Fold this sequence. Notes:
Layout (H helix, E strand, L loop, with lengths): L5 H13 L4 E5 L6 H9 L3 E4 L2 H9 L4 E3 L13 E5 L4 H14 L5 E7 L4 H12 E9 L2 E8 L16 E3 L8 E3 L11 H13 L8 E5 L5 H7 L5 E6 L2 H10 L4 E4 L10 E6 L4 E2 L2 E2 H4 L1 H12 E12 L4 H7 L2 E9 L2 E8 L4
Amino acid sequence: MEYVDQAAERLSEKIxxxxxxxxxxxxxxxxxxxxxxxRLAASSTRLITGRYDQFMRAQRAGLTAYFSDFDLRxxxxxxxxxxxxxxxERALVHHLLNQAYRALPPGGRLHLAGSKNEGLKTHSRRAQxxxxxxxxxxxxxxxxxxxxxxxxxxxxxxxxxxxxxxRPLELAAGEKPYxxxxxxxxxxxxxxxxxxxxxxLREHAPEAGCGTRVLDLGCGYGFLTxxxxxxxxxxxxxxxxxCAALAATQKNxxxxxxxxxxxxxxxxxxFDLILCNPPLHQGFAAAANTGLQRRxxxxxRRLLKTPGQAWYVVHQFVPLxxxxxxxxxxxxxxxxxxxxxxxxxxxxxxx
Length: 351
């Protein structure tokens, strides 16, 4: 059954009721149901997104779409309404509010959608401080749609943690800094799962990747990519759906080939070693509910050489063994620690 984000559903219905016009939808990682894409296409709403999967889906739906780290200067034509299903990260919310405030003309309207437990009340206060106009609220069960018009033109921007800028972070003692930024999952830390994966490789497969073709599938800011680069592979490819993650990985590992994809869908080469710490969530939804985990594994099988290995790290409650079995992948447990497990995957030879 298709996952349906109710906040996005209600917001797209508002566009349909308005009959379209010069609207712009800001899409982060929240998965959008077919019904949402259909309403956006029917209303000629344009879309900007920092997610490659959303960008490709928008193009398939016939929308005019832009793939960037939410640069609202790209559309050549003006727009009178901006629609935002509220993201998870506060710095991104503030950045998008600032961008919308700068881009909208006087009288232009911003429409925010989300549920009460997603910080919508706080975000609405910040938006009202910036835009200056009165706030209108629509209630749809637990979903709220907040609309306000731009009535001022010179208010200072909201603090957004300098969202657009990559910045160096000393995340590990004795190592050169990693470049990262808000908008990338776990942007200011070393993920415990990724650390476990590199520790397991050092202990159980110290030569893995040396002189071979290696893929970091879902690279984030490039922690695993940098680890792989130190093994001196013959070829190193890193891929992610997040525009900001691609920029960070390229800066952290200039020798890597960094490509945008949806869980590896655009890649055609096969690899001797695949490293993957797949996302547990997609927006506020569990990745298992959106099919994201299965897409990662299906592309892993397609991209993996025989012989070859894919080393995955996931939370221990993720049924990786069952998911692998359904996709004709052998799954060998390697180690576990602090709620995570590492497994080595191979293409099954018995089927």
